[in-house]
């Protein structure tokens, strides 16, 4: 069916009160949520947005959603649910910075269509959770105390949401997210599969630069190795790198990394001591400096770096991660050539655009909030420090890598897709690879071979995707991008890992085309068991 004919057909459906179904959506039931137009952009895929209450919660606790209909009927069987992390960051970040139907035009709040929108690969649901995040609302005082409540709130909210959009109940559900969503998603999935009164088909989980492993493994243990591998980009002098090398030896990190470099691994990797108190409690150095800015001593010399790593009474012992962050922040504040250090993407400099103020500018507008059926939400901020502080200060959830992810993959046959951007220093890829090698699923630990197969801009799973040939390239630049490897990957026993080259914490920001292929070829593609 050609597009004008399709639109005509669609309009006819609208005009006829007796016919309410289009691809399964009961449009009467959800008409109040239909997004009829959005300021600043003339064409948008069909979508519904608004807030729905968390069942059983106090009045005022409502989760904001924005659901897009699949633009391609061939992919209509998928429901992708996207989560940003934080905790306390809005999923509109992912929507507007490279995975959704529009993005900002440079450093302005003018909107442009994103040709790599995942809405071409399924129905896509964006959610601002926990309550109080983004355009969601919360009662006062802030009611969410810990990750357990985040999990049960969202699971019961989703059930209520699916009652409104019942045609989605039978879809293949793909939970995707980044950063702290590495905790949200596995916990939410395990809550949903527990509940047999709500049979859902959770097909996959994708965790990008996610915090799903042991806190120390994902930070301190691999920090020294990471900054050495990226020392040119980070511009760290050898005399400083050698202090980190000394710490990696003294703290036993080299031993852990050596064990993880053996394929297949010989047993669980024991992290000596309790670096930065991460084993005991996630006491991650807070990026907004709200929790423990007082720990920062601004080290610049090797001696100061050594003191910060070994003798900080505040970071805890063997604090390579916190020290590296403090060192880089201090150095860039004083540098004319390497200013504006960005832990989320170490390739950034002062000319890089920050999308968060743009999001705040756009989604705070009264006309935008009204269009999204979230009127009078007041000033929107992409991340909420109250929620971040509350949840990070709470009891740390058990790392999903220990039991939750293995159980979901092994017992529930849910595919797990892990991915990293090489330029992310917050959750660096070496720490993710280490944590993956320490995980046991379907009867074995880790991968049996290093994840070093190549994948490409238009083919994210070359050895398994038979019918996903690279699209014919129309320009020389496109042809070159197609041939250049986008990164390295592997897949074993229902778990895949992709390392994206030249990408930061949010891989799709630098690599929207590659991530589009990834979602198509890895996430929503039918997998072999
Ligand atoms: C963060 O969330 C809390 C709890 O809902 C709310 O009181 C506060 O206004 C929010 N802060 C921002 C900056 O949005
Ligand atoms: C299962 O879901 C139903 C519907 O949301 C809910 O009432 C019930 O409490 C849930 N049970 C569990 C164990 O989560
Ligand atoms: C490996 O997993 C075990 C639990 O199975 C945990 O005790 C240990 O700290 C983990 N090591 C790393 C490096 O993640
Ligand atoms: C760190 O403190 C220990 C004692 O707790 C001391 O022996 C050591 O010399 C100190 N190291 C540095 C670099 O200050
Ligand atoms: C930054 O540079 C100034 C001038 O060279 C110096 O006085 C100051 O100590 C430096 N600050 C840091 C944190 O290195
Ligand atoms: C983007 O615009 C803001 C506000 O006008 C400005 O402060 C910022 O420096 C700009 N960023 C870049 C990279 O030009
Ligand atoms: C597991 O899921 C895959 C698709 O992801 C499917 O091909 C396979 O048949 C499933 N196996 C079982 C035992 O359900």
Automatic annotation (TrEMBL):
<dbReference type="GO" id="GO:0004185">
    <property type="term" value="F:serine-type carboxypeptidase activity"/>
</dbReference>
<dbReference type="GO" id="GO:0005802">
    <property type="term" value="C:trans-Golgi network"/>
</dbReference>
<dbReference type="Pfam" id="PF00450">
    <property type="entry name" value="Peptidase_S10"/>
</dbReference>
<keyword id="KW-0333">Golgi apparatus</keyword>
<dbReference type="GO" id="GO:0017000">
    <property type="term" value="P:antibiotic biosynthetic process"/>
</dbReference>
<keyword id="KW-0645">Protease</keyword>
<keyword id="KW-0732">Signal</keyword>
<keyword id="KW-0121">Carboxypeptidase</keyword>
<keyword id="KW-0812">Transmembrane</keyword>
<keyword id="KW-0472">Membrane</keyword>
<feature type="signal peptide">
    <location>
        <begin position="1"/>
        <end position="22"/>
    </location>
</feature>
<dbReference type="GO" id="GO:0072330">
    <property type="term" value="P:monocarboxylic acid biosynthetic process"/>
</dbReference>
<keyword id="KW-0325">Glycoprotein</keyword>
<dbReference type="GO" id="GO:0006915">
    <property type="term" value="P:apoptotic process"/>
</dbReference>
<keyword id="KW-1133">Transmembrane helix</keyword>
<dbReference type="InterPro" id="IPR018202">
    <property type="entry name" value="Ser_caboxypep_ser_AS"/>
</dbReference>
<keyword id="KW-0053">Apoptosis</keyword>
<keyword id="KW-0378">Hydrolase</keyword>
<comment type="similarity">
    <text>Belongs to the peptidase S10 family.</text>
</comment>
<dbReference type="InterPro" id="IPR001563">
    <property type="entry name" value="Peptidase_S10"/>
</dbReference>
<dbReference type="GO" id="GO:0006508">
    <property type="term" value="P:proteolysis"/>
</dbReference>
<dbReference type="InterPro" id="IPR029058">
    <property type="entry name" value="AB_hydrolase_fold"/>
</dbReference>
<comment type="function">
    <text>Protease with a carboxypeptidase B-like function involved in the C-terminal processing of the lysine and arginine residues from protein precursors. Promotes cell fusion and is involved in the programmed cell death.</text>
</comment>
<protein>
    <recommendedName>
        <fullName>Carboxypeptidase</fullName>
        <ecNumber>3.4.16.-</ecNumber>
    </recommendedName>
</protein>
